[in-house]
Structures are given as C-alpha cells and as structure tokens.
Specification:
single chain, 418 residues
C-alpha cells in the first residue's frame, strides 16, 4: 500500500505549479497580463500610426489637388449661401434648372463686378510701389537717426562726466552725418513695378488654368443648386436610422439655412463697414475713398487676417500722404471702426448664434491659407461654420431620437406590466 501510494503520488503535480512545466500559477497570470497589456499598447500604437498616415495622405492629396478641389469647395460654400435664393425661385415657380442657372449668372456677374472693383486697387498699388518704398525707407531712416541722436546724447553725458565729451561728440556728429548721407542716397531695390506685372506671354500661359478653374466652379455651383435637395435626401438615407430619413434631411436643410442667414447678415454688416470707411477716407482726404471702402468690405470676410492687412495698407497710405503724427490717423480711424463693428454691431445682430472659439477660427484660416493660398482663406470660415452647424444639428437630432425611443420603450414596458 505505501509503495502504491507513492507510485500514484509521483504523477500528481505539485501544488501551485503548472503540470509538466513547474512554473508558479501566480507568475503565469502576471506573465499573461503583461503580454496582454503589451499587445494592447502595440494595437493602440498601430491605430495611432494608421490615423497619422491617413491624415498626412489626406492633407497631401488636398494640396496636390488644389487646382480642382479649391474651386469645388468655393462653389459648394457659395451654393450654401445662395440656398435662400434658390428656395425663392422654387416658391415663385421657376423650374429647378432655370432657378439654378439664374443664380449662377447672378453669382458670376457679382464676381466680375468685384474683380473690376479690385482692379484699380491693384493698379494703384503697382504704380505707387516705388513711392511707397521710398517713403518707408525715409521714415525708417528718420527713426534710426532719432535713435542714434538719443544714443549720442547719452554718450555725450557720459563723456562729460568722464572728461571725454569733445571726442565723443565729434564721433557722434560724424555718425549722424553718415547716417543722413545714407538715408539720402538710399533707394528701394525693388522699385520697378513692371516686374510685378506678368508679361502677355505669361498671362496667356495662365489663361487655360484660370479658365479651367472657372469652368469647375460654375459646373459644381450649377449642379449643387440644381440637386441640393436630392443630395441632402441621399445623405439622410445613408446616415439616418430607419424611418428617420425625412427628419435628418430637414435638419440638413435647416443647417444650410442657418449658415446662409449668418453670412447674409455678415455681408450686410460688412457693407455698412465699407460705407463708414468710405466716409472716413473722404473726411481724411485720402484718394480713392470708394476703393478703400470696397477693400474694407471684402477683406472683413477674412477674419483677423483681412483687417490686419488693411491696417498695414492704411499705415502705408498715411506715411505716403501725411507727415508726422498725422500719418497714424488712417490706421487708427480704421481700427476704431473695425473694433466698433466687431465688439458691438456684430454681437448685437447675431447674438449668441454660431459662436465659435477664436482659436479654432484662427487655426482654420492659417491651415487653409497654407494649403490653398488666398482662396483657402476665403472658404475657411464658411467651411468651419458649416461643419459646426451640421454636427450640432445632427447630434441634437440623434439625441431627440434616442429620447423618443427611450420614452416609447418605457411606455411599452408599462403597457406590458399592466
């Protein structure tokens, strides 16, 4: 019996060890937990890497397809802004194709008018570029001379205290004279305005690319205005739960109307700002007040960057046309008008609707300006607002749907319990 018991116990595994291996059970659990954590970290790292590669590929594709995507996005943005006009054509009784064509013709006519308004500004800047550079060089030289004069006075005082006033004063006078001579002979290096204007050959070489962008813009705008109701219905069928397609389509169109109302209001405010700037420029005596007003109206659509560029332009105009402290009058007047518009008029007209974080606006502007240039700056804010309004409306609709489903489920349970 003892021998048999010993023989049967020889095959029995020791307590706390895995059979055939001799590894403690708690150590085996720790090893498995460590391997599981490491695999989870590797999977998370792989997911992050795939997302990063996808973002880089997406941005690269957007940059490479700039000539096609930029006019398409601009057409979609303008189509959203023009949606109330399209609805008006439908209420009047226009066929969809006639309404879309009429909106397209009006849009192209307005863009051509804006180009004709902006042309004198560009021509005047090119013509006055040498004078602007010369005046700016002279102003910079005067500031440098004033700073050198202050430095020489401090050196004279220090030399008088140490007993070396005569030599220091002579050296200071020589430095001031040399700086004045330098300021007198200084001339702008890039003063030839003809270098800024493309030659006829260059203009002809650019014509096909410009025409292609115009055709893409016109085609996308026309077909979006023609089929936007069907587009929203198609999107609703893809993202909405069963039976909620109509509700989601209505929310998409409501978001479109909200963005359109916002931009129509902003356009009216910017037109008022342009009129105020025109009157102010007339009072100050600067030339071309209507051109300055049109520039103020158009550049105010590009938040932050547009007003900053116009402040710089008013500063240059003040340096060219006025002397002394009066040269700061144009930028100060424009900055005052812009602050009144941004801090009082726009918040009063819009209230709390579509309030967006300024950092988000600035990042969108910088990113699309870097990606697509000036056209990106034009479409950055509309795209951002469109996305925010769509996401908030869809999220609100989904929450209402979940609440309705929860209420119906509770009602069904109560009915079954009764």
């Amino acid at each position: 019996m003892p021998a048999r018991r010993q023989r049967s116990g020889a095959h029995r595994p020791r307590r706390g060890l895995r059979a055939g291996v001799g590894e403690p059970a708690h150590r085996l659990c720790v090893s498995r937990r460590y391997r599981g954590t490491r695999m989870h970290k590797l999977e998370r790292g792989a997911q992050v890497a795939v997302i990063a590669i996808g973002v880089v590929a997406f941005v690269t594709g957007m940059s490479l397809a700039q000539d096609v995507l930029a006019p398409m996005v601009l057409a979609l943005v303008i189509g959203v802004v023009l949606s109330p006009i399209s609805d008006m054509w439908m209420r009047i009784g226009f066929p969809p194709a006639a309404g879309a064509l009429t909106s397209l013709i009006l849009t192209l006519a307005l863009l051509m008018a804006l180009i004709f308004v902006a042309q004198p500004i560009v021509v005047r800047i090119i013509d006055a570029w040498p004078v602007i550079l010369q005046e700016m060089s002279a102003t910079i030289a005067e500031v440098q001379n004033a700073l050198r004069g202050l430095e020489s006075v401090s050196e004279q005082v220090e030399g008088a205290i140490s007993g070396e006033g005569t030599g220091v004063a002579a050296a200071a006078d020589g430095s001031i004279a040399s700086s004045r001579d330098t300021a007198e002979v200084a001339a702008p290096a890039n003063g030839d305005p003809s270098a800024m204007v493309p030659s006829p050959v260059e203009a002809l070489s650019l014509a096909p690319a410009v025409l292609a962008k115009v055709v893409i813009f016109a085609g996308v705008l026309f077909f979006f205005l023609l089929t936007r109701v069907e587009i929203y219905a198609w999107i609703a069928r893809r993202i909405a739960p069963a039976g909620q397609e109509r509700e989601i389509a209505l929310r998409l169109r409501a978001a479109e109307r909200q963005v359109s109302t916002y931009f129509i209001t902003i356009s009216i405010i910017n037109a008022g700002l342009g009129a105020a700037v025109t009157i102010a420029v007339m009072i100050m005596g600067l030339p071309s007040p209507f051109i300055w007003g049109a520039a103020a109206m158009l550049l105010n659509f590009v938040l932050y960057l547009g007003p900053t560029a116009l402040i710089a332009a008013f500063t240059v105009a003040g340096i060219v046309h006025f002397d002394g402290a009066m040269s700061l009058l144009p930028p100060v007047v424009y900055l005052t008008l812009n602050m009144i518009e941004a801090q009082f008029v726009t918040p009063t007209a819009l209230g709390k609707r579509l309030s967006v974080n300024p950092l988000l606006i600035f990042l969108a502007l910088v990113f699309l300006l870097w990606l697509w240039g000036p056209l990106g700056g034009i479409v950055a804010i509309p795209l951002l607002l469109w996305g925010i309004v769509l996401s908030s409306n869809l999220r609100e609709g989904r929450r209402e749907l979940e609440e309705a489903m929860r209420a119906s489920e509770e009602a069904r349970r109560k009915a079954e319990a009764a």
